[in-house]
Structure to design on (126 residues):
């Protein structure tokens, strides 16, 4: 299960309304290979697929892709609205480290501590 903040739910409601999204649609969260740290977060407006986990909050729907459960369990989805950074953010306790821009991560492995890699300082992101 993941946690969604009130701010994220409110922003998603506004986004879905502005896109005239169908009632079944929500923010579908997933993980795929890529990014400078090994795995990258994916987010898109979509309807749920078979096996997905659906989180309804204040009339909005967050969807966790069925093949990403292991990487996203325990995460918190929030929304940042800062001068240099605006958008949905995933805070992931399953990540041993993230890239500088926060769009990709390396999953933690039990008993293994990641080594510092200067290539993951955010200068080569995206």
């Amino acid at each position: 299960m993941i946690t969604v903040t009130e701010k994220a739910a409110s922003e998603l409601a506004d986004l879905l309304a502005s896109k005239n999204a169908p009632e079944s649609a929500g923010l579908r969260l997933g993980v795929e290979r890529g990014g400078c740290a090994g795995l990258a977060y994916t987010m898109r407006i979509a309807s749920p697929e078979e096996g997905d986990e659906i989180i309804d909050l204040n009339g909005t729907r967050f969807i966790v892709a069925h093949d990403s459960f292991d990487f996203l369990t325990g995460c918190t989805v929030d929304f940042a609205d800062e001068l240099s950074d605006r958008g949905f953010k995933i805070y992931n306790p399953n990540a041993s480290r993230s890239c500088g821009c926060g769009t990709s991560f390396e999953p933690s492995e039990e008993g293994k501590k990641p080594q510092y890699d200067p290539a993951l300082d955010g200068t080569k992101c995206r």
